[in-house]
Amino acid sequence: MTEIRPLADDDTLRGALDERSRAQLDALTAEVAEDPTRLGRAFPAAARRTGRGPLAGADGVLLEDAVRVALVRTAGRSLDPEPLLAELREVYRYGDSDEKRAVLHALSGAPDEVDGTDLLLDALRTNDTRLVAAAMGPHSDRLDDDAWRQGVLKCLFTGVPVAAVTGLTRRADRELAEMVQRYRREREAAGRDVPPDVQVVLDACAASPEKPKDS
Amino acid sequence: MRIFDPHIHMTSRTTDDYEAMHAAGVRALVEPAFWLGQPRTSVGSFTDYFDALVGWERFRASQFGIAHHCTIALNPKEANDPRCAEVLDVLPRYLAKDGVVAVGEVGFDSMTVEEEKAFVRQLELAVEFELPAMVHTPHRDKEQGTRRTLELVTESGLAPGMVVVDHLNEVTVDQVDEAGCWMGFSIYPDTKMDEHRMVAILQRRGLDRVLVNSAADWGRSDPLKTAKTGAAMLEAGFSADDVDRVLWRNPVEFFGQSGRLLVDPDLADDAATGADASATFEGNSILRGSRD
Predict the structure, then answer these.
(1) What tens digit of pLDDT does each residue of B188-208 get?
(2) Which residues, 6 or more positions from A203, have their beta carbon under 8 angstroms from its beta carbon?
(3) What keywords tag this UniProt record (chain B) (predicted)?
(4) Residue in B51, B55, B96 nearest the CB of A44
(5) Is B77 contained in some domain?
(6) Domain of B116?
(7) Half-sphere exposure of residue B287, counting CA atoms within 13 Å on the CB side?
(8) Best of A21, A93, A94, A100 to mutate (most B CBs within 10 Å, chain B)
(9) What is the pLDDT of residues B73-100, one digit of tens each?
(10) Residues in chain A with pLDDT values less than 50
(11) Which of A23, A72, B139, B232 could form a disulfide with B195 if both were Cys (CB 3.0 to 4.6 A apart)?
(12) Which of A62, A96, A129 has its CB closest to that of B54?
């Protein structure tokens, strides 16, 4: 048993689906409940069988993400953390970008025993802004400081709003401030605009309690 | 003019192409899996390529306001290399995905036994996954290759309306037409078809079941040949609605049979010329918010 936090509560999710889509969600859920290793079969078809787009009543959440995370939650009910993570790795490996993003969201709602750092690092190596944003969610607490700072810098670089970064004020430190200042100098030297989020990160660095550089 | 290019290899094209295509009216496309010029030697390089077709390339296209779909298959040329035969075993994973709108490109290159075996197996997969099939016809001995293609399609049990036979010309079009399959035409700068010969075929046999594509890739090709064919149709007296039918509604009708299209009707509306964009997407999931 591994408790995965849903992206949206059941009422919100089911309320956003019409009768046909609700029946499809029930069928997918029943399939995964009966055999959690069928998660990888249920994942690709989940969006076209239920729906996509912004989920009414859940700010910034996509319906297809909420459905897929609900399926991971169902799989988690009968899988311990290790086998669940093995399933998630498989789904991520062969997933399209939407499926990969949903795995990252599921990790963000996973308990401490589930460590999907390798998947976050894979997502942060891409230039797909949707994956980068999802990788910097709550599960990014798992990243070591170097990887986390590079993740924040990548958000600035690729235009992912830093509002998506979990724990910015908590983790921002002097080293990140120095990196971001160098990035700002480079932009200014080239005569380019400096994204407003640069200041947001610098403010977070200034506000955070001073931490040893190599913590 | 709104354009759905039903066959173009964007992996081989630049961002300048994406910009020029959008400016010309392209709002959706299908990128068939094919040969990359350099032969591959392992299954792994195929899966990385397929991952790019359902991942990075889809994202790249979305940044230019173009909905990207793909077809997945082991292409005929590489079907001849035993090191690549196991690609057939990984196809089901990809054929289950959104935005994968057909099995393809399948068919013949040199008409070998290995090619036929892979072709037959992949037609079976099209039946199993309820997907259309995109069939490549050979550059050499095209007429005989097309004939054998149509025999195999009949034997497969896949409905002719679920099959597009591509790269046709004046010599091969009629047998495909008579078989009831869709007819694909690749408009190229100096090989395959050109836009004026294309117009002549449309004048002779009408607009039904015709798909016009640029098939642009890493060779000498032009991603705007769809738009240029539209212009040639207008010059020849076809109406704007005729052009919309060939360049937009026909590909939507054919690939819509997959139930896997990811076109945002709003993306198409801004390039439409009075045609109803939303009506044609029934049964397909609609991708919204993809331009984040």
Answers:
(1) 988 878 999 999 999 999 999
(2) none
(3) Hydrolase, Metal-binding
(4) B96
(5) yes
(6) 3-267
(7) 23
(8) A94
(9) 999 999 999 999 999 999 999 999 999 9
(10) 213-215
(11) B232
(12) A96
Q: How far is B51 from chain A (nearest CA, A)?
A: 7
**pLDDT grade, residue B285 (50/70/90)?**
very low
Hey, is the C-beta of B291 within 8 angstroms of any chain A C-beta?
no
Considering only the beta carbons, identify the residue of A48, A127, A130 that sits closest to B292: A130
The CATH number that applies at residue B163 is: 3.20.20.140
Provide the percentage of residues in chain A whose pLDDT is more than 70: 97
Residue B85 falls inside a structural domain? yes
Quick count: other Cβ atoms within 10 Å of Cβ B151?
10
- Residue B219: CA count within 13 A, CB half-sphere: 13
Tokens of B89: 């075993």
Domain total for chain B? 1
Cβ of B59 within 8 Å of Cβ of A128? The answer is: yes
Contacts of A69 by beta carbon, 8 Å cutoff, 6+ apart: A4, A6, A7, A102, A105, A106, A109
Alpha helix (H) ranges present in B192-271? 195-205, 225-235, 240-244, 250-256, 265-269
Residues of A in contact with B288 (CB under 8 A): 52-54
